[in-house]
Design brief:
Length: 432
């Protein structure tokens, strides 16, 4: 029949011994200077066997003696006549091993029965070689009880500790009396200080980690903003494409208008500068080049007048001038000249709101492209044969421009243009 083993073993390892080793290491660590500072020293009033009192803290006398000393804990010094002492030399070892060695020695030398036995020990550093002194103290539990009963008035109702052998420094404390309350108080103070130390470490860690967390939060916010921008980008790109197409169309239109000569401005200028004895019979506009034909009293003077006008250059007569027979004979001329598009091109002006509002929509005319206002300032003499440029002009109605808007103006300020012209014959300026 298989037997059941109750010892704590795992893979051949004695777990109970491992636990004892861990506890021993932790206990030794609590006694080392870096950690022993975390255990508060309790104040104890020692009731000496000679009737005096002294204050002890951390296992050493604080030099205060007298009557009426106040402290949270009280201890009674046991007289020497109630004790059995023994001192041994042992090698340096751990606390658990030292306690086991002391218990074995006490059981060997004790004259008291086990139920009546009370004992304690302390270790002192030896002279050399790493050996320590082990001081043992044994007493009878009944005799201690009788002595404590005799010290009832001095105790004041408190549960005392039992200390012995105070000559060598730290006392030997007998277990099983009031030392448990002092040790529990020290443990509570130690854990409170551990808690404060842990809180301080957590606070320091938070101080160091907070900038990192802030940077992480900013990074997350930046990623969110970037994602938002990415989601909004397609609509913005589409709007940008539409805008760029509009800009390209405007650029093409600007290029077309920049090199275009407006016929109505040319006719307006000719109407103003031609002498009264001159009549136009033909007007041809091809790009910046103009050819006019008609009758005048002095063709040379007419060419000189045209050559002095701003925006008109290269004035010449491609054919000789001929004189018409008759009483009032005039010269039949053919004159060519070139125009400057800067002078006779489309001009953009800001139209006042009042003028725009007062203009009837029926009087706004368009010569070539839609929305272009064609408004000569004075009537122009119509040639006998319809010229190609003038025949291409058409009359259209358009809504009035917005107040302050830029509108193209040809031939000066835009007056009202007659809807129809009753005369198809050429007019002669200065005719009788």
């Amino acid at each position: 029949m298989p037997t059941i083993q109750t010892d704590a073993r795992f893979l051949g390892l004695d777990l109970s011994a491992l636990g004892r080793s861990v506890r021993q290491a932790w206990s030794d660590m609590q006694g080392s200077p870096p950690f022993s500072w975390l255990t508060p020293d309790a104040s104890v009033v020692l009731l000496q066997q000679d009737g005096g009192e002294s204050l002890w803290r951390g296992g050493s006398r604080r030099g205060v003696s007298g009557k009426g000393i106040q402290a949270p804990f009280v201890a009674v010094e046991l007289p020497d006549e109630l004790l059995l002492r023994r001192t041994l030399t042992i090698p340096a070892m751990g606390e658990v091993d030292t306690a086991s060695a002391a218990a074995l020695q006490v059981r060997t030398v004790s004259p008291f029965i086990e139920q009546d036995l009370v004992w304690g020990y302390r270790t002192r550093p030896g002279a050399a070689g790493g050996a320590n002194f082990l001081d043992l103290a044994l007493a009878s539990r009944k005799q201690i009880a009788q002595y404590l009963e005799a010290q009832t008035k001095r105790l004041g109702g408190k549960t005392p500790e039992v200390w012995v052998d105070l000559a060598a420094g730290a006392p030997i404390v007998f277990n099983g009396y009031g030392e448990g309350a002092r040790l529990a108080s020290g443990a509570r103070g130690r854990w409170a200080r551990y808690g404060l130390l842990a809180s301080a470490l957590i606070l320091m860690a938070a101080i160091f980690v907070t900038p990192t967390l802030q940077l992480r939060a900013r990074a997350i916010e930046a990623v969110g903003a970037y994602d938002d921008v990415v989601h909004r980008t397609p609509a913005l790109v589409k709007e940008r494409e539409v805008l760029m197409q509009s800009v390209e169309k405007l650029n093409v239109l600007s290029e077309l208008l920049a090199g275009r000569v407006e016929p109505m401005r040319v006719l307006d200028r000719l109407t103003k500068v031609l002498p009264d004895d001159t009549a136009l019979q033909g007007f041809t506009l091809k790009g910046p080049k103009v050819t006019i034909t008609g009758l005048t009293a002095n063709a040379s003077a007419l060419m000189q007048i045209l050559g002095e006008q701003p925006g008109i250059r290269d004035v010449r007569a491609p054919t000789p001038t001929t004189r018409v027979a008759g009483a009032n004979s005039k010269e039949n001329f053919v004159i060519e000249f070139s125009l400057d598009p800067q002078e006779f091109g489309v001009a953009l002006v800001s139209q006042p709101a009042a003028m725009t509002a007062s203009m009837p929509a029926s009087t706004v005319t368009s010569a070539a492209p839609a929305g272009v206002v064609n408004a000569p300032s004075t009537p122009v003499a119509k040639p006998a044969s319809a010229p190609s440029a003038a025949a291409s002009a058409s009359t259209a109605t358009a809504p009035p421009a917005a107040p302050g808007a830029l509108v193209p103006v040809f031939g000066g300020s835009p007056p009202q243009v007659p809807a129809k012209s009753s005369s198809a014959k050429p007019e002669r300026k200065g005719a009788p």
